[in-house]
Design goal:
Layout (H helix, E strand, L loop, with lengths): L5 H6 L6 E5 L5 H12 L4 E5 L10 H6 L10 H8 L5 E5 L13 E6 L4 H11 L3 E10 L9 H11 L3 E6 L3 E6 L2
Parallel strand pairs: 1-2, 1-4, 2-3, 4-5
Antiparallel strand pairs: 5-7, 6-7
Helix pairs in contact: 5-6
This protein binds S-adenosylmethionine.
Length: about 180
């Protein structure tokens, strides 16, 4: 569980698209992201089940973050943090399904769902919604491990062309869609 790398997010504010955080919890990164979005007048979307982590068939993910972990966060509490900005939207529901039907084009997304399954499924659905030159910053990626988002991101990079990937801090990786 990391925190948004503000400097990285800022690089993508030159593009016209929307912004999102997938996996919000109490909103500690949301607070930073909404401030940057407001500065650049970009629409921003916050996605979370607000029921905590889902079940997973990956044992190591469940051991680290069991079903229901983080279920003490609420959309109302996050609304108090981001609701002052009129272009902020909170979507309560499970990813990736919560993205369906939304015709959005993102310049920057912070993906922080922790588990393998949520990460790979959401990456697949989000990628076509990313603008050329835009990026997804994935949390919980570790060079020397396979669990959490790590394996999902590796598999995604292997089958998807046109990605520039750059490590950001020890536990995050940035996937940029090449023009
Ligand atoms: C590590 S926390 C997010 C932390 C937050 N990004 C921050 O920087 O403070 C992970 C969040 O993802 C949510 N989550 C995990 N899998 C999900 C899924 N498939 N759909 C929706 N929300 C999910 C959990 O409810 C939890 O609040």
């Amino acid at each position: 569980m990391g925190k948004i790398h503000e400097e990285t997010m800022r690089k993508y504010m030159q593009l016209p698209g929307e912004i999102a955080e997938c996996g919000v919890n109490h909103g500690s990164s949301s607070k930073i992201m909404v401030r940057v979005a407001a500065e650049f007048q970009r629409r921003i979307w916050f996605f979370d089940s607000f029921r905590g982590m889902p079940h997973s068939s990956v044992k190591s993910d469940l051991l680290r973050y069991p079903q229901g972990r983080f279920d003490n966060a609420s959309a109302d509490a996050v609304l108090k943090i981001v609701g002052g900005y009129s272009k902020a939207n909170i979507v309560v529901g499970w990813l990736p399904q919560a993205l369906s039907g939304l015709e959005l084009r993102f310049s920057f997304v912070f993906l922080d769902l922790d588990h393998y399954e949520g990460t790979i499924q959401t990456l697949r659905m989000l990628w076509p919604m990313i603008l050329l030159g835009g990026a997804i910053l994935c949390d919980d990626f570790f060079e020397d491990k396979r669990d959490l988002a790590t394996q999902a991101v590796r598999e995604f990079i292997d089958v998807t062309g046109n990605i520039k990937h750059v490590r950001v801090d020890e536990d995050q990786i940035l996937l940029e869609k090449l023009c």
